[in-house]
Amino acid sequence: MLTEITLHGDIITVIFSTAVLYGSLALFISILHNVFLLYYVETFVSVYKIDKISFWVGETIFLIWNSVNDPLFGWLSDHSFLSSPQSGSQITSPEVVLKRLKALSRNGPLFALSFLAFWVSWARPGLQFLVCLCLYDGFLTMVDLHHSALLADLAVSAADRTRLNFYCSVFSALGSISVFLSYSVWDKEDFYSFRLFCVALAAFSVLGFVSVSRMLRRRFQNEVRPKQDEALTLKELNVGHAPLTQPEKPVTIGQYLRQLSRHRNFMWFVSMNLIQVFHCHFNSNFFPLFLEHLLSDNISASTGSILLGISYIAPHLNNLYFLTLCQRYGVYQVIRWLFMLKLGLSVAMLLAGADHIYLLCIFIASNRVFTEGTCKLLKLVISDLVDEDFVLNRRHQATSALLFGMVALLTKPGQTFAPLIGTWLLCVYTGYDIFERKPDKDSLVSVPDVASGVGTPPLRLGCFYMLVFVPITCALLQLTAWSRFTLHGRKLQGIKTLRQGAQHGHLIDVKAI
Q1: Assessment of whether the complete model's pTM goes beyond 0.85
Q2: What pLDDT, on a 0 to 100 scale, did the predictor assign at position 112?
Q3: What's the pLDDT at 253?
Q4: Which of 5, 211, 300, 372 has its CA 20 to 30 A from that of 408?
């Protein structure tokens, strides 16, 4: 049932169309980011021939920038919300939404243009690798930060946020089609078709960001104008009257960090999410490697393409089912079940061994599907942490983008650790170096002789152990951290009730879905 809001005598059907438009923004992000995750390492290693030192230096600098830019952009966006009640109450919910949408309309097209910089060689590989990574991640951060913050700004109740996330999953699944299409044009020897494909994706994304953000801004501008007129009238009536209370000092960044350090659920969540980010990017970065060295001799190229595409689109489709489970059992319980499922499947695959090809196909795909499926649910948990932070620290406006940024500060290092630790484990355990340019290292025929040490397993067996032991280790650590997280059940419902009650008096209600 849709909620209708009457403005200026017109009845506008807001929520269904707003939810669809909000979800469609995920399409314009995912069609580019999926291709980036799948091909950027392979492009620089195999096409541009980047050397190992440049790769490691670039990833290390990227680690620092990747971690710092989220809280930096979040602070620049939301620090005004940490001010006194007198100034904080002047910022209405629709104005916050408008601020997010303006940022998306500016940074969305720039994000798409930065995506194109990867696929044309315009500088030395090491320099281009560093510049492209930092530029791309900077605009991706701005887009993702404000899009994620809108989830907490548009809705408070779990059911409303679940519906918004539902549309994000639908459009993200559509965005995964780019993975299917990319495999058919990907050719390390002839890059022209792949470049044209990336230009088409970027053009579509630019058009989408501009049109959707404009439509959403028009909708919320209709709600801001009456509030601004009311505020102006009240200001004129109060001219010459001294304020009854002294304004409070704004919260400094140091005070904000101390508040977060005392937020126990926040700390346990980022501990779990750091491992989750690492595992998600480990799967993305090494998926082609697992296909090549574990399955390539036993499956056709078309089967590999289908397996690759399914592993990208299925998490979004599965998430539609996971969200229905979240409505019934709660997000906390569903995430816990997914960790247990990841652990169980990995142990079963380890016991079955590397020789069961069909089981390997299912496991490689399902491992990515359930891991990515968990990631899709974590924005709901962060939105709940926004509510708890609002209540615990008695804020006058929720600092959604800032909290999402602080989560990223502590968890995004996992994105950089994934390729670094993965390539290191592969080299140490099997003797195989993906940066080695010798022809015999590129052939599976020479794999058993790759390591000269006695008792060192061949590459195929090493890849298999990486494939199963990484999710086993991640699942055990995550279950331990997640058991200490208490923001669920009655406590979560109490927090939401307190936030809705605190905001009821002075914010326009645009959250009902």
Answers
A1: no
A2: 95
A3: 79
A4: 211
Please tell me the distance from the alpha carbon of residue 505 to that of residue 513, in angstroms, as a whole number: 19
Give residue for tokens 């502590």. 410
Question: Which H/E stretch holds residue 269?
Answer: helix 264-290
Token representation of residue 110: 């720039």
Cα 395 to Cα 402: distance, rounded to the nearest angstrom: 13
Note whether 32 and 105 are within 8 A (CB). Answer: no
pLDDT, tens digit (0-9, with 9 covering 90-100), for 434-462: 666 554 444 333 334 433 333 335 777 88
Give tens-digit pLDDT for 302-315.
676 677 777 777 77
Name residue 12's beta-bridge partners. 5
In angstroms, rounded to a whole number, what is the distance separating the alpha carbons of residues 146 and 141? 8
| 13 strand-pairing partners | 4
Q: How many CA atoms lie within 13 A of 123 on its CB side?
A: 9
Please say if the pLDDT value at position 113 is more than 50: yes
Q: Which long-range contacts (CB under 8 A, 24 or more apart) does 11-19 make?
A: 12/219, 12/222, 14/219, 14/510, 15/512, 15/513, 18/154, 18/216, 18/219, 19/163, 19/164, 19/166, 19/167, 19/513
Q: Considering the domain 14-223+250-503 in this protein, what is its CATH number?
A: 1.20.1250.20
- pLDDT averaged over every residue in the chain: 79
Q: Rounded to 5 degrees, what are φ and ψ at 293?
A: -95, -15
Residue 113 CB: number of other CB atoms within 10 A? 14
Distances (CA, A) of 354 to 95, 196, 357: 56, 38, 7
CA separation for the pair 278, 60 (Å, rounded): 15
Q: Rounded mean pLDDT of 211-223?
A: 82
Q: SS3 of 250, please?
A: coil
Q: Which two tokens stand for residue 8?
A: 């200026």
CA 67/CA 89 separation, integer angstroms:
31
